[in-house]
């Protein structure tokens, strides 16, 4: 939610909408009494309610996104710390504390704007009444100026910088984990071939030792006393042979099956966590893309770049402000559809919430 425009960049127009756009009287719907009352209601709502609520929701979304991003990075980087410090209860407490702090910080925003009634005389010597959005004595005070700059630093600069840094670290971590998984899969494949090769060589050595034992018992007994055969067999990790129906074989096969089951389960968990992290990175990049232009749409920030005496700059400033708001709305909508399309758990939770409420 962008800050209110100052008198240098604002215009007093007949029946101005909350967002600053006009409803041309040449359009038939604009002259209806319902439209006139609706615009008046929207102007009052935006001035006394919507402006403060918009700033509150913007701050909450920024800091909650930062918390989620940091939590995901800690869970991916240090899983034991993630399980220890980022439980559901801890996350709920963090969100509640963030909401309470944001509401307390933005309470003065509800007293910064006011609706002013004006009247001007047209060329036909007829008077027209209009409504315009102005700033109260608090909005013109130094306290509001300081609050605006503190808010710009705490809501725009710090969260966006943290999101950029942590998101970049997440990308690096995702890439390193992907490389480790590829190397592990290659090592596992090579390890299977090596085990098969060792088993084949051990069977050949076993067969040769049996032949030597039959042909030259004295030589075989001599080599066995030296421990040559035992050391050779241990180095090659010869598997123990057991009958087909023995309990040892069943235990060994069951342990192999359990290991394979838990290994595949761990792989699926890691893949799901990786997909969730990638989705979060995409959503955060979209959030940053929508928040950075709107962060510089505040009056005190614009006046640092655009001089107040530039009359021709008013149109471009207004266009930039509307473009930043539109881009923020588009990215917010995109994030919702990304979650719905790519996150099955979010989609099922949303369905259960909607249909259960009905």
Give a short summary of the structure.
The chain has helices at 33-77, 79-85, 88-106, 142-215, 217-226, 228-235, 247-295, 299-305, 313-342, 344-357; strands at 113-121, 127-135. With 358 residues, the protein is mainly alpha-helical.
Description:
The structure is a single chain. This protein has helices spanning 33-77, 79-85, 88-106, 142-215, 217-226, 228-235, 247-295, 299-305, 313-342, 344-357, and strands at residues 113-121, 127-135. It has 358 residues and is mostly helical. It has a single domain (28-241, 278-357), classed as Up-down Bundle (Rhopdopsin 7-helix transmembrane proteins). Helix 1 packs parallel to helix 4, helix 1 crosses helix 7 (247-295) and helix 7 runs antiparallel to helix 9. It holds the Pfam family 7tm_1. One of its GO terms (cellular component) is membrane. Keywords: Membrane, Transmembrane, Transmembrane helix.
């Amino acid at each position: 939610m962008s800050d209110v425009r100052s008198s240098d960049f604002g215009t007093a127009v007949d029946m101005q909408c909350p967002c600053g756009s006009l409803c041309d009287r040449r359009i038939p719907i604009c002259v209806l009494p319902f439209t006139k009352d609706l615009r008046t209601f929207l102007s009052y709502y935006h001035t006394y309610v919507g402006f403060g609520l918009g700033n509150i929701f913007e701050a909450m979304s920024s800091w909650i996104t930062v918390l989620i991003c940091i939590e995901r990075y800690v869970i991916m980087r240090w899983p034991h710390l993630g399980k220890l410090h980022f439980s559901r209860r801890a996350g709920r407490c963090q969100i509640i504390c963030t909401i309470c702090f944001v509401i307390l910080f933005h309470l003065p925003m509800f007293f910064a704007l006011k609706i002013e009634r004006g009247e001007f005389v047209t060329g036909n010597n007829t008077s027209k009444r209009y409504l315009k959005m102005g700033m109260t004595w608090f909005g013109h005070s130094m306290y509001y100026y300081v609050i605006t700059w503190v808010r710009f630093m705490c809501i725009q600069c710090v969260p966006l910088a943290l999101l950029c840094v942590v998101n970049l670290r997440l990308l690096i971590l995702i890439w390193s984990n992907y490389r480790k998984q590829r190397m592990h899969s290659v090592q596992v494949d090579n390890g299977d071939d090596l085990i098969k090769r060792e088993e084949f060589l051990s069977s050949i050595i076993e067969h040769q030792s049996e032949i030597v034992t039959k042909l030259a018992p004295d030589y075989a007994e001599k080599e066995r006393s030296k421990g040559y055969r035992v050391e050779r067999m241990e180095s090659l990790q010869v598997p123990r042979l057991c009958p087909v129906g023995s309990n040892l074989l069943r235990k060994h096969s069951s342990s192999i099956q359990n290991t394979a089951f838990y290994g595949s389960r761990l792989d699926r968990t890691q893949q799901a966590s990786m997909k969730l992290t990638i989705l979060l990175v995409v959503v955060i990049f979209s959030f940053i893309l929508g928040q950075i232009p709107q962060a510089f749409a505040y009056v005190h920030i614009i006046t640092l770049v655009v001089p107040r005496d530039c009359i021709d700059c008013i149109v471009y400033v207004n266009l930039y402000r509307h473009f930043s708001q539109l881009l923020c709305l588009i990215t917010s909508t995109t994030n919702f559809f990304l979650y719905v399309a790519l996150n099955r758990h979010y989609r099922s939770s949303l369905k259960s919430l909607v249909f259960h409420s009905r």
